Inverse folding.
């Protein structure tokens, strides 16, 4: 078995002895800095970069780029370019996979975890057993040579690129010199794209996709916003204070995450957007589209989401009860109205959210759920748009309003304590 060729950390090149940059490498570097960095994402940039290398004479069969991410669910994202594939393949790895055998027995683990700068294996000269299981797959595809190297981002974060060829004899010295020469420029472009993706990921995670898009588009000044008609969703977990007093912190956090996963999942699966979590409560909106002037479509989506959430909650409660754990109950309120959707806050700390009387009213309606022993209550505005699914449960006073309001509940029985016979 041929030994690997590992690079020395002290040298500026990823491949020792690489000659100086030539015209072919200069053309690739210029393309990266002038055009590649403006690519709309990793996939098109990766495809164009690899085809540039091939046009410069580098005989690629496959290339892989693996980037660690700052993401609540994903640890690493990898982009697979193949010479005969129509598009770049994307694979994500969840947190925890860094301890899996698949990862720990890969060349990338040697580079990321063990600190190697580069590896080279002449696959055509090797026979089993291979140092890395992936080599069996590559040899079956006709690969003759494999090179992997690290690309450092600012702060020392390690990313990995690998290149495979099927040319007899493998990569030439000139091939590797070209790749080595363009590596710093490629790293700068990859970091730019990674930061762009990071900004999108963080905003999607913490403020939602629709709001994140508005912020990235430049809507960031305090006081800016727009009036939006929407169906408002407000849900609250009942008995949370008692649970918080009794349960250990880890169990309480897991309980809340499971509850919000059900509520938020139902909202987002039907096009709603979560505005914020407030303790054990959640505020979300279903904006009215231009094609939905009466709000009937938005109200239907919100009601469907509420029923799905209650069904999933009932299933989760059955599991919790079987394990001797406390079950959960919640109230969901829906109201349709106009809100101001925009930036509010102090000079240095802003919140992009919805405000207005409609927000106050939906929270007050939710407060009636416990008193009326209802899981779902809506305003008359929602009931007018979805009359066939709702029934009046009377007029009731709410805090902040002089006159009582009429509220409505679901006709169908969903989850627990929901129906018309209470």
């Amino acid at each position: 078995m041929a030994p690997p060729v590992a690079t020395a950390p002290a040298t500026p090149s990823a491949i020792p002895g690489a000659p100086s940059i030539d015209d072919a490498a200069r053309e690739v570097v210029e393309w990266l800095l002038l055009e590649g960095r403006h690519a709309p994402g990793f996939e098109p940039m990766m495809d164009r970069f690899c085809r540039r290398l091939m046009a410069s004479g580098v005989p690629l069969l496959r290339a892989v780029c693996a980037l660690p991410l700052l993401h609540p669910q994903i640890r690493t994202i990898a982009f697979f370019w193949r010479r005969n594939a129509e598009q770049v393949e994307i694979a994500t790895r969840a947190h925890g996979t860094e301890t899996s055998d698949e990862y720990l027995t890969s060349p990338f683990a040697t580079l990321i975890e063990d600190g190697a700068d580069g590896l080279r294996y002449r696959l055509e000269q090797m026979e089993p057993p291979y140092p890395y299981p992936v080599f069996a797959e590559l040899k079956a595809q006709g690969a003759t040579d494999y090179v992997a190297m690290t690309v450092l981002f600012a702060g020392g974060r390690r990313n990995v690129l690998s290149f495979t060829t099927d040319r007899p004899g493998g990569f030439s010295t000139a091939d590797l010199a070209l790749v080595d020469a363009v590596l710093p420029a490629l790293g700068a472009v990859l970091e730019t794209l990674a930061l762009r993706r990071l900004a999108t990921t963080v905003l999607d995670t913490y403020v939602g996709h629709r709001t994140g898009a508005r912020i990235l588009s430049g809507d960031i000044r305090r006081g800016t916003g727009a009036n939006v008609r929407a169906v408002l969703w407000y849900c609250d977990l009942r008995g949370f204070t008692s649970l918080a007093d009794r349960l250990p912190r880890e169990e309480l956090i897991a309980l809340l995450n499971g509850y919000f996963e059900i509520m938020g999942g139902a909202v987002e699966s039907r096009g709603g957007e979560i505005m914020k979590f407030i303790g054990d409560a959640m505020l979300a909106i279903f904006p009215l589209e231009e094609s939905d002037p009466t709000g009937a479509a938005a109200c239907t989506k919100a009601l469907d989401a509420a029923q799905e959430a209650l069904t999933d909650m009932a299933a989760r409660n059955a599991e919790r009860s079987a394990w001797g754990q406390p079950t959960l109950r919640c109230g969901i309120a829906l109201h349709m109205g106009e809100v101001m959707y925009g930036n509010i806050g102090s000079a240095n700390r802003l919140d992009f959210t919805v405000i207005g009387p409609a927000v106050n009213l939906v929270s007050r309606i939710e407060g009636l759920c416990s008193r009326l022993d209802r899981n779902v209550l809506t305003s008359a505005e929602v009931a007018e748009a979805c009359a066939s699914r709702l029934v009046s449960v009377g007029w009731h006073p709410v805090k902040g309003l002089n006159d009582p309001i009429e509220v409505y509940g679901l006709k169908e029985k969903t989850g627990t304590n929901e129906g018309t016979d209470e």
